[in-house]
Amino acid sequence: MTTFPSHHARSVLTLRLRSAGCVFAEEEAALLLAEAGSPAELERMVEQRIAGSPLEQVLGWAGFRGLRIAVDPGVFIPRRRTEYLVELGARFAQPGSAVVDLCCGTGAVGAALAAEVPGIELHAADIDPAAVRCARRNIETVGGLVHEGDLYAALPPSLRARVDLLLVNAPYVPSTDIATMPQEARLHEPMTALDGGPDGLAVQRRTVAEAPLWLAPGGRLLIETSARQGPRTAALFEAAGLRAEVLRSEERDATVVLGFRPESTRKDHN
Question: Same domain, yes or no, for 86 and 186?
Answer without folding.
Answer: yes
